[in-house]
Amino acid sequence: MNGSDHNRWSEDLAAYMLGALEPGETAEFERHLADCERCQAELRWFDPAVQSLPEAVERQEPPPQLREALMAEVRADVRPAPAKARRWRSRPAMAFAVAVLLIAVAGGYEIGAGDSGNNGDNTVLSTREHGISVKMVREGEGGTLHLANLDQLPSDKVLEAWVRREGTVEAVPALLVPDRKGQAETTIADMSGVDTVMVTEEPQGGSEEPTSPAIVTMSVPQ
Amino acid sequence: MAVRREKAERLADEELMPLVGRKDPEAFEVLYDRHGGVAYSLAYRVVGDRAAAEEVTQEAFISVWRSGARFDATRGSVRSWLLSVVRNRAIDFLRSKAGKAPKLDFDDDSALEQRPAAERTEEEALRRETAVEVRGALGKLPGEQSKVIELAYFGGFSHSEIAEILQLPMGTVKGRMRLGLEKIRGELAEGLA
After folding, report:
1. I want to staple B53 with a disulfide (CB 3.0 to 4.6 A). Which of A56, A78, A209, B43 is the partner?
2. Across the interface, do B65 and A74 touch by the CB < 8 Å criterion?
3. What's the pLDDT at B124?
4. Where is pLDDT greater, at B76 or A204?
5. What is the pTM of this model?
6. Which of A22, A216, A16 is nearest to A133 (CA)?
7. CATH of domain A3-56
8. Last residue of a domain, which of B38, B70, B101?
9. Distance CA A163, CA A210 (A)
10. Any idea where the domains of chain A sit in the sequence?
11. How far apart are CA A207 and CA A188, in angstroms?
């Protein structure tokens, strides 16, 4: 390639970087760029200028509902995944959690004795505990846990759901944060073998293992 | 396995992307919290309407969520890639609205101002310094150069469309784009010196 060749393409470089070439011109320029070290070097030099353009726009505060809608869609995408990611067996901390859970059940906090029914194809368990309304809707192999009348949490706390399956307690991946109406829900992808569902208050980000007594404990009929 | 929020917050963007590719909501949430603000601001700058900016930003992030594995770290930062996705979506949105002209604020200095906000991290502080430099550099550009850059980058117009709008030869438009970018790049280089 001689100098005049390069100058011809060099004129297009800024327009290319600003996305202002026509589609055919873009393809032609990219073919040239693949073999032209001078254009590649110029492109690298100009790159910070182009990348900085969006940083200079006036900042607008995104509406909170954007984040909520986005994360709802994202979490809906992962719902089919089996909730077998985190399991602990025979670990001291888990022994505490299981003990808390069993004490809660034995101590009269069991919810399984609450109302149950069949809503079409969905089995529904519902009751109240500590003023919290709890509803579990079975949907195929999974289920959705609905909580209502929840108190607002401090900003550094979240609710985390757990299931017990064959003596092993597992965390439910999606954490719960009550909305303005004091409602929260989470999906349990795989309910097979689950005999108990419980909810604990945990630090922001959730815990690997339950660290506080359950505020809700629900027995699930097999 | 879902990475917990606290752990995800400690990861660099480039480390989050493989997790996003494996459908980790916490990793994705951290990515949004880091870049959602500038992404929405860019979308709003292009489409000029809050509801449309919200739609564009959501679509862009969902496309990132569903195609996170396509990010190529050798071609730039996650933030740049993400913002290019947002810009492309916003330009597509404008083009889909037949007859709707993009928002162009050539004479509106407030468009280049930035509201003060809490600087959560050193990185964010650095970005804000860069933003100040770029606003300064754009402000120093002759109007004829900033105009073609804004029409191309924020308006999504091709050089031939800009030539038609401004009644200029296409070579002049390309030349002004190049001169404008050279000056911005020069200002950035001085800022780093």
Report:
1. B43
2. yes
3. 60
4. B76
5. 0.58
6. A216
7. 1.10.10
8. B101
9. 11
10. 3-56, 89-219
11. 17
My answer on whether B82 and B177 are in the same domain is: no
Residue B165 lies in a domain: yes
Nearest to residue B152, comparing CAs of A57, A53, A46?
A53
Domain holding B4, by residue range, is 1-101
Mutation test of the interface with chain B: which of A39, A59, A159, choosing the one with the most B Cβ atoms within 10 A? A59
Letter for the amino acid at A210? P
CATH number of the domain at B70, please. 1.10.1740.10
Chain B residues with CB under 8 Å of A16 CB are none
- Note the pLDDT tens digit of each residue in B122-143: 566 666 666 777 777 777 889 9
When divided into structural domains, chain B yields a total of: 2
Q: Quick one: tokens of B55?
A: 């739609």
- 3-state class (DSSP) for residue B117: coil
- Class of CATH domain A89-219: mainly beta
Q: What is the pLDDT of residues B153-186, one digit of tens each?
A: 999 999 999 999 999 999 999 999 999 999 999 8
Touching B: A residues 73-132, CB under 8 Å:
73-75, 77-78, 81, 85-86
If asked whether residues B137 and B164 sit together in one domain, one would say: yes
Considering only CA atoms, which of B132, B127, B154, B131 is closest in space to residue B13? B127
Q: Do the chains contact at B1 and A85, CB–CB below 8 Å?
A: yes
Instruction: Give how far Cα B156 sits from Cα of B15, B89, B117, B153, Å.
Output: 31, 11, 29, 6
Q: Give pLDDT, residue A71.
A: 94
